[in-house]
Design brief:
Blueprint lengths: L10 H12 L1 E11 L2 E12 L2 H6 L13 H6 L3 E3 L6 E3 H6 L10 H9 L11
Antiparallel strand pairs: 1-2, 3-4
């Protein structure tokens, strides 16, 4: 089966999306010394990531950020990327039901559907 290419994998938008999704950490230690004597020392620690990625890896947030908002609670939900369309979907929904965007169904969900009894009912509930 051939999976469709994601348009977001190309160009600047794709690069930014990937950096925010995976995160980027920069650690740099710069020292200037003369004759073994350190004259200047600079330590740089920087992280660039979405709040969701940063929270997943336990990065500390600046003061003044409220973790009690609805958007924050939504970002903390466990999401997986759909293998077919690439959209982020709740992990439990993706594994046990299907992707709401493209309809992709996991093997686990297909097995569950096959084991469920199929009952037809008419308009009168009989």
């Amino acid at each position: 089966m051939v999976l469709p290419e994601k348009d977001s994998d190309r160009g600047l938008a794709g690069a930014i999306d990937r950096i925010l999704d995976k995160g980027l950490v920069i650690n740099a230690d710069i020292t200037v010394s003369v004759a073994g004597v350190e004259l200047l020392g600079i330590k740089v620690r920087a992280a660039l990531a979405s709040f969701e990625t940063a929270a997943k890896y336990g990065l500390e947030f600046p003061s003044g950020i409220s973790c009690e908002t609805a958007a924050w609670r939504d970002a903390m939900l466990d999401r997986e990327e759909c293998p077919q369309c690439g959209k982020k979907v709740l992990r439990e929904e993706l594994l046990h039901e299907c992707c709401p965007w493209c309809g992709w169904t996991s093997a686990l969900a297909r097995d569950r559907m096959l084991k469920m009894p199929f009952v037809l009912k008419d308009d009168y509930g009989t």
